Amino acid sequence: MGEFSGHLKLRAEVRENGKTVLAGQSFRAPFHVGKAYWDEEGAALRVQVVNPTAGILEGDKLETEIAVGSGAALLVTTPSASRVFHMRAGEAVASQKFSVEAGGWLEFLPEPLVPHDRSSFRQVTEIEVAEGGEIAFADLLMPGRIARGEMWSWSRLRLELSVRVGGELILRERLDQSGEEMKALAKLAGVGELKSEEGRGKGESGGGGVFNREWTRMDANAAAENGASAESGACCFGNVVIVSRKLEECGAWREWIEALHGARAWVGVSALRGGCGAWSLKIVAADGAELRRVLGEVREILAERLPRMRAALRRV
Amino acid sequence: MNTETSGVAWLAGMLQMGDTFYPTGAYAHSFGLEGMIELGAVRDRETLREFLLRSALPALRQAELPVVIHAWGALGGGRNAEVSGDGVLDKIKRINGISENEDGRRAVEWVDWRKVGELCVLASALKSAKEARLAAENIGRQRAELAAKLRGHPLAVEFVRWAEAEKWPYSPAAAAALEARVLGAPLEAALASVFYASIAGLMAAAMKLLRLGQNGSQTLLTEMMGKAPEIVAAAKKVPVGEIGWFNPWLDIAAARHERAAARLFIS
Fold first, then answer.
1. What is the mean predicted confidence (pLDDT) over A154-181?
2. DSSP A166
């Protein structure tokens, strides 16, 4: 089985005409960078990072460094999910570093990570935002190959995230869970336990929680269309960090995002430490389509204050 | 002071600081539990038990207790993360042969204040929900300031001075380490105290929020206390770089709770 020690390095800078260019780029398999496009609507340079291999394999060591200079605006996406394949004994490690200088903007919105059965993956993400810089960073996670019914069966998943603004640590998150442990947490939240009509109102202990209290026939049909069923026990995660002085004050945007919370997605927004306009947005959705829908609405809402988010997430 | 009487002194002090009568304000917080109940995840004794096993204990193992351990080490000059039967003052006196009056001042000289500050910031950065973070900081502040005010110990006074000067966020875990150092209590006592206070605090909140009787809560509390040795042993192996644990559902519940129209607890 081939092992990669791949890297991706991008540096975005602004030119005199106000447009952003990639002043530096270097990549090695399994990374490949597609042609960059200037998005007029969002006034940002859109770059798509492709993994032309099947996915992430045992022993892979992946390094990503994306830097955005003052005045530059960059949107980085991926065209498809990152699959982490079955591993016999070892693990794969990904190191991601993002830096944004004052006046710079970076939106990083890749497709979800899909950890397969018996995979072991560690992702270490470090974000450094200079005072006056802006970032919208998203990390999406699927429970596995939902359509195949393979969920929560990875061996170990470590997702470590540190965010510094102006040199000050404002967020440290560390998810370190086996698939079984995550499944137990999901079950606690009510995932995968469809509450029967008979059980309602009789004080039965099972079946409350996120996707069941208000689960409707329509929800079940929608889930089935997406390859999952109400009983499948699936849920998908979105972990978003946004830093912008334009979001210092609570406003209608927060209420609108909170209103996305409902029967098929939990949504929570809260201000991070430091008083620097940094926010944590967390989403747990019933399936990938719902996660994508909520994220799309979040981008629309935030684009009122952060117009760079009007840049299209065009997939090739 | 002989060994026996000094043991009684720190134990009495820890009982005082761990008592609900001690004005830390912790009674006003459910530490995310009310949010989990509001969203229907925790509904009864069985789901509360699952919450404790799947969320509260791992968070203690991977976040709260390791901060206590590393803060304890930093407050003793970084000399130990090992469990010792002696407090730092006993060590200093033994090594330097200094008098009882001087020991507090000498203790301050041993402290790795830079690391203490980093741990306070880290403890704050671990909490993404604002209200949960502010709740913890308020409790940590109250504990540290009380240690300085009631004990007048130079270590506690200096801790508060540093925190104010450097604008450290106060941390209950760091404050627990400080209290133990001030009292001359062993690390294990501090860890057991934090473990008990965390679980008992959740249980006390649960009794107000759920249909949960005295016996039902005490049997659950007893079961969780039985897990303390393995959780503490695991926490001792967590390096600073691996501190942190999160439950996405709990974070969402905590974020939504801070904007709830009606609620019993602050967090």
1. 97
2. T
Q: Which of B54, B124, B248 sits opposite A282 (nearest CB)?
A: B248
The better pLDDT of the pair A248, B240 is held by B240
| Whether B39 and A168 lie within 8 Å, measured CB to CB | no
pLDDT, tens only, B173-217: 999 999 999 999 999 999 999 999 999 999 999 999 999 999 999
pLDDT digits over B113-150, tens only? 999 999 999 999 999 999 999 999 999 999 999 999 99
Number of domains in chain A: 1
* Residue A274 placed within a domain: yes
Closest C-alpha to A2, from A50, A51, A58, A52: A58
Q: What is the span of the domain harbouring residue A258?
A: 5-190+215-310
Query: Residue A201 falls within a domain, yes or no?
Result: no
Interface pTM, i.e. ipTM:
0.89
- Could you tell me the two tokens for B136? 């913890």
Coil/strand/helix, residue A216: coil
Angstroms from A219 CA to nearest CA on chain B: 18
In a domain, A199, yes or no: no
Q: Say if the Cβ atoms of B51 and A173 lie within 8 Å.
A: no
Rg, C-alpha atoms of chain A: 20
In this prediction, residue B60 carries a pLDDT of: 97
CA of B217 vs chain A CAs: smallest distance (Å): 17
Average pLDDT, chain B: 89
CB contact under 8 A, A261 and B126: no
Please state whether the predicted TM-score (pTM) of the whole model is above 0.95: no
Domains of chain B as residue ranges with CATH: 30-79+99-258 (1.10.4190.10)
> Which ranges of chain B does DSSP label H, i.e. alpha helix?
3-18, 33-38, 45-51, 57-59, 65-75, 88-96, 100-109, 113-125, 130-151, 154-166, 172-183, 187-209, 214-225, 228-235, 248-257
Do B248 and A280 lie within an 8 Å CB cutoff? no
d(CA A165, CA A131): 6
The answer to whether residue A85 is domain-embedded is yes
pLDDT in tens, B40-92: 999 999 999 999 999 999 999 999 999 999 999 999 875 543 334 445 555 54
Query: Exposed, middle or buried: residue B227 (CB in 10 Å: 0-12, 13-18, 19+)?
Result: middle
A205 inside 8 A of chain B by CB: yes
Pairing of strands A105-109, A134-141: parallel
